[in-house]
């Protein structure tokens, strides 16, 4: 055990140990969620009540597209929706009428069926009495004619009842169609109202207008850039550290930030997260070293740093400012982690 300690001490004397309780880089910049606002509808701008570098609040009007034609489209869609609603009411009324017709046809059919049953009973009785002379041939012929007439009427009433049932089924289909038409008309009306709402281009966040890209009287199309909104003072810092410097960087570690444009001021923050790949991996054409001569290039990994919101002077930080960041890697590093690192470093040096 003593020999191991002595060996470690000797190595520490002969070799400078590269462990540092902080890492610093000036490859760091202030960042923010820049929000480019674009037009969702097309038309002429009748008002652009903002100026460059103006502070705005969420919901403030930034630009107004001429909305006369959009209002007319809303009125047209509203009329079509009203017509569809009236058609549905008419279909429902027709349904009620057809139900009454079916019930009336069924009642008439039952009454005629009862009358036919009575005629059939008379027909049997008359034919039984005919041999005895209790009834005349004329009476028998008359009851025979009544049975035939009532049978024909019964068949006709049954057909009318079935036709009334079919019309009732058709009225159900008409109701479903009317409901679908009403739903389509209401959806169209909603879309027209949405388009009308988009004629008012408002700020989605509190912040500062970066630059106006339009002026009153200009014709804008869907996707035309109106302005950029910077949600100040909600900013953070992105620092690009070399791959050899991120070994002990962990989320939550304390960070000291010096701003080039604000000499003499120091800001406090903490490590929020590390990007899951080097900056080169997100390039449009990542470097490919699989062929040709190889030249090793030290990679840099972006580290996101959030600022302590209690700092009053944070409002003076603007996106794009160059800063120097120092991450205090000793914060959050336990003695066990340090010993593990030291042991691994010594093994690699021997």
UniProtKB/TrEMBL annotation:
<dbReference type="Pfam" id="PF25917">
    <property type="entry name" value="BSH_RND"/>
</dbReference>
<dbReference type="InterPro" id="IPR050739">
    <property type="entry name" value="MFP"/>
</dbReference>
<protein>
    <submittedName>
        <fullName>HlyD family secretion protein</fullName>
    </submittedName>
</protein>
<dbReference type="GO" id="GO:0055085">
    <property type="term" value="P:transmembrane transport"/>
</dbReference>
<dbReference type="InterPro" id="IPR058792">
    <property type="entry name" value="Beta-barrel_RND_2"/>
</dbReference>
<feature type="domain" description="CusB-like beta-barrel">
    <location>
        <begin position="235"/>
        <end position="277"/>
    </location>
</feature>
<feature type="domain" description="Multidrug resistance protein MdtA-like barrel-sandwich hybrid">
    <location>
        <begin position="39"/>
        <end position="225"/>
    </location>
</feature>
<dbReference type="Pfam" id="PF25954">
    <property type="entry name" value="Beta-barrel_RND_2"/>
</dbReference>
<comment type="similarity">
    <text>Belongs to the membrane fusion protein (MFP) (TC 8.A.1) family.</text>
</comment>
<dbReference type="InterPro" id="IPR058625">
    <property type="entry name" value="MdtA-like_BSH"/>
</dbReference>
């Amino acid at each position: 055990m003593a020999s191991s300690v002595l060996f470690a001490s000797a190595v520490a004397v002969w070799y400078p140990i590269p462990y540092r309780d902080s890492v610093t880089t000036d490859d760091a910049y202030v960042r923010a969620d820049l929000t480019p606002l674009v037009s969702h509808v097309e038309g002429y701008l009748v008002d652009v009540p903002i100026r460059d570098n103006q502070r705005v609040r969420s919901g403030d009007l930034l630009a107004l597209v001429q909305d006369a034609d959009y209002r007319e489209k809303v009125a047209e869609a509203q009329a079509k929706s009203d017509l569809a609603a009236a058609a549905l009411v008419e279909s429902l009324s027709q349904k009620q009428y057809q139900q009454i017709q079916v019930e009336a046809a069924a009642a008439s059919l039952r009454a005629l069926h009862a009358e036919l049953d009575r005629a059939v009973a008379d027909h049997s009785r008359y034919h039984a009495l005919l041999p005895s002379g209790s009834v005349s041939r004329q009476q028998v012929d008359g009851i025979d004619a009544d049975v035939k007439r009532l049978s024909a009427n019964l068949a006709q009433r049954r057909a009318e009842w079935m036709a009334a049932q079919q019309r009732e089924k058709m009225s159900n289909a008409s109701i479903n169609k009317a409901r679908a038409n009403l739903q389509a008309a209401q959806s169209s009306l909603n879309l027209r109202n949405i388009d009308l709402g988009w004629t008012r281009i408002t700020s989605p966040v509190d912040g500062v207008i970066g630059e106006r890209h339009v002026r009153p009287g200009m014709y804008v199309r869907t996707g035309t850039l109106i302005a950029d909104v910077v949600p100040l003072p909600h900013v953070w810092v992105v620092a690009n550290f070399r791959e050899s410097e991120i070994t002990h960087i962990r989320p939550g570690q304390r960070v000291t930030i010096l701003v080039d444009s604000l000499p003499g001021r120091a800001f406090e923050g903490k490590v929020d997260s590390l990007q899951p790949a080097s900056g080169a991996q997100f390039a449009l054409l990542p470097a490919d070293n699989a062929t040709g001569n190889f030249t090793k290039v030290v990679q840099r990994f972006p580290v996101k740093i959030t600022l302590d919101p209690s700092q009053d002077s944070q409002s003076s930080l603007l996106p794009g400012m160059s800063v120097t960041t120092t991450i205090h890697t000793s914060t959050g590093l336990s003695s066990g982690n340090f010993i593990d690192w030291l042991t691994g470093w010594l093994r690699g040096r021997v």
